[in-house]
Amino acid sequence: MGWSIALSVLMIVAGILAIVVPPIAGIGATILIGWLLVFSGVMHLVFGWHTREAGGLIWGILLGIVYILVGFYMLLHPVAGLAALTLALGAYLFVEAVLEFVLSWRIRPLSGWGWLLLDGVVTLILSMLIWMTWPSNSPWVIGTLLGISMIFSGSSRLMLLLAGRVSAKA
Questions:
Q1: pLDDT tens-digit profile of 63-95?
Q2: Of 85, 114, 150, 162, which sits with the fewest C-beta atoms within 10 Å of its C-beta?
Q3: Overall number of domains in the chain
Q4: Whether pTM exceeds 0.85
Q5: Distance CA 111, CA 14 (A)
Q6: Residue 145 burial class via C-beta count within 10 angstroms: exposed 0-12, middle 13-18, buried 19 and up
Q7: Distance CA 50, CA 44 (A)
Q8: Angle between helices 22-50 and 78-106 (to 10 degrees)
């Protein structure tokens, strides 16, 4: 239990640091994603080799090469990779907003549909802010959002642990 509390507090502190110095957190996330892409590329090559009998060799190799090339590019050029991640985040948020608008319209007869519409509006505003200020916003967007996520994750885990500790004593 003590280690879990310490790790939760460490996650909160790391989140605060990510918000204080978002470019470093953003570059760190870019490097992590670069390595994940390289690893995934190798896995695609292996999968392609294992599915060669079913005609998957060429597609597995091509997909693996693309993953590996993009991953190495992000590792060798983390600032450009960070800019690409920021643009991808803006695109993701835009698509999410559109889907939330459609869903809120479809469930409109149900109570509470307005919350989904509000979520869509906020998500659309965030995506437009990212797109309108891209690429100059790249150094801070990913790191700040990562920091916020880490703070909330660490806090929720800490509160769960503390609540479990109190209920165990009762």
A1: 999 999 999 999 999 999 999 999 999 999 899
A2: 114
A3: 1
A4: no
A5: 39
A6: buried
A7: 10
A8: 80
Domain with 149, as residue range(s), is 2-169
Q: Is 94 helix (H, G, I), strand (E, B) or coil?
A: helix
Residue type, 164: G
Distance CA 145, CA 93 (A): 13
What single string gives the DSSP state of each residue in 9-52?
HHHHHHHHHHHHSHHHHHHHHHHHHHHHHHHHHHHHHHHHHHTG
Of 83, 81, 88, 94, which is closest to residue 126 (Cα–Cα)? 94
**Which residue type is seen at 58?**
I
Task: Identify the burial level of 65 via C-beta atoms within 10 angstroms of its C-beta, where 0-12 means exposed, 13-18 middle and 19 or more buried.
Answer: middle
Output the six-digit token pair for 63: 């997909």
